[in-house]
Amino acid sequence: MSDPTRTSQSTRHATDPAGAAARTPAAAVAPTSRHPLAAAFRLLITAAALTGVVLAALGTAAPAQLLTRFTVQANLAAAVIAACSAHRAWTGRRPVSPRITGALVPFLFLPALLHYVFPAADPIAFTLPAATPGAVRAVSDQLLYTVTPLAALADWLLLTAPRGFRPSCAWQWPAYPLLYLACTLAFPAATGAPSPTAATAATLAPALCALPLITIGIDQVRPAPRLHKNRISPTGISPLK
């Protein structure tokens, strides 16, 4: 039986263009698919998330304690993942796994929903601690609770292909928020937030599981973004079309 990985003698010594193309792996001649606009947009997400965190730190008396808040953790994760996605889009490398990028959507929208539904409350450290109203805090809240979540939503809906999430994400994504909820119940002093009531915890737990399910459901039915087709066949050896 012939070895499909070896090149035949006639192909190996061919000097015409067709023979040369046959001896060249398809991966070596495939054009790099770069997306500079997507890279620029994701850099803006990184800038918005980091700016919101820095402004929040400037507006509080204990900046280090903000690292225990879910809002800050989610926005820092969004900044890192968006920067990595921007680099890959700019260089044409494979995108970050949807299992990672998709988790940002429910992670960012959970504190945003709590902030707008319960603006006067401090729901067990999922949002920023209460502070004296001011311009710095107002800008920080807008960046952390509005700009970054909506930008992550737009990136997912407009710049990524649909049906990339797997059913296993439905239990993987809520794992950390549920663990965070359990830690705030067991060790409320560690986050600097008041101890949650049983009613609050019972309300948040289903929401932590519902947001990933909603995200996965939308991903299964949303249309694919309009992408330009490559006019060069990736496997053919004929001249360029």
Automatic annotation (TrEMBL):
UniProt keywords, alphabetically: Membrane, Transmembrane, Transmembrane helix
Parts of the chain that traverse the membrane: 43-64, 100-118, 143-161, 173-191, 197-218
Organism superkingdom: Bacteria
Start-end of Polar residues biased regions: 1-12
Keyword Cell wall biogenesis/degradation: no
Biased composition (Low complexity): 16-28
Keyword NADP: no
Region annotated Disordered, chain positions: 1-28
Record protein name field: Integral membrane regulator
